[in-house]
Amino acid sequence: MAQNIMVIMGGFSSEREVSLQSGQNVAAALRRKGYTVTTHDLTDSHKLISALTRRKPDVVFNALHGNWGEDGTIPALLDLLQIPYTHSGVAASGIGMNKYLTKLIAKDAGIKTAFGRKMTAREFSTIGATLARPYVVKPVSDGSSVGVFIVKEQEDIFQIRYDIPETELLVERYIPGRELTVMCLEGKAGVVTEMCPRDDFYDYKHKYTAGQTLHILPADIPADVAKTCLSCAETMHNKLGCKTISRSDFRYNPEDGVVFLEINTHPGMTALSLVPEQAKYLGISYEDLCAKLVEDASCRKM
Which residue among 50, 180, 208, 236 is least enclosed by CB atoms within 10 Å? Predict the structure, then answer.
């Protein structure tokens, strides 16, 4: 059994604050389970490597979110250092972070996705006003609904700003309806949650601000809809080769049916996060969920 755990959190992405919340919660939970835990706020790559070399943890708990954290970068480093880590490996993390690649895999598996195309922010600035509305525009590789916009009216385009012209975007047909999510734990999906934000869009504010979103668990949806969500979540988890845990998001309405949106290979572990909530519903405490991730930790063997 692993004893010395380093929780890496923070990082360089737009999800830094969420990662810090997740990391602090995880560290406290693991200490309650009897592990020796240190934390590392990732602000400099050289300091991270030095800390890993000095502390020699048995396992790294990867509580990072967004780019540099859940895109395969940290797993690649830990593979080279031969330090076991939680969550998915390089390939699953990199593909799962890329919404366009994930979409292609879902389509190949026969899972319904929204019609869309990939383009740069520069291209979007030229043709965005000519695209059929309503549509959603979002970065190909980012999380927590950061940089996501819904364009329903012509004037909505003017609120869209991306600082880097070469940022890759995914522009998809907007799917109205109910927002659903499914945790997949060790290849098995158990229950569907419906998210009901106070406003129309389940964005960053609604995800991480108390009182902004109602979680209905289990979702009050037809049995066949729930079955489809569970099956699709398991398929995507296994197709990507995810390790231990993932969370898949969907939209549902009677006309379109269940439409897969994206998969998260490093789901949040904050007080408002969906995965710990579903785990609790299934009889798994937050502490036991964190311990399960630690005990499933591994790295690519040389």
Answer: 50
**Quick one: pLDDT at residue 68?**
85
Distance from C-alpha of 208 to C-alpha of 142, rounded to nearest angstrom? 16
Strands 168-173 and 178-185: unpaired
Asked whether residue 102 falls in the same domain as residue 216, the answer is yes
CA-CA-CA-CA torsion for 10, 11, 16, 19, nearest 10 degrees? -50
pLDDT digits (tens, 9 = 90+) for 123-177: 999 999 999 999 999 999 875 456 789 999 988 998 888 989 999 999 999 999 9
| Sign, CA torsion 28/29/32/33 | negative
Greatest CA span in the chain, whole angstroms?
Answer: 58
107/231 same-domain check: yes
Query: Is 200 found in the same domain as 101?
Result: yes
Count of positions (residues) in the chain: 302
Residue 282, domain member (yes or no) = no
Average confidence (pLDDT) over 272-282: 94
Query: Which of 73, 41, 75, 47 has its CA nearest to residue 59?
Result: 75
Does the N-terminal peptide bond of residue 218 adopt cis geometry, omega within 30 degrees of 0? yes
Q: Is residue 207 pLDDT above 80, yes or no? A: no
Beta-sheet pairing, 245-253 with 257-264: antiparallel
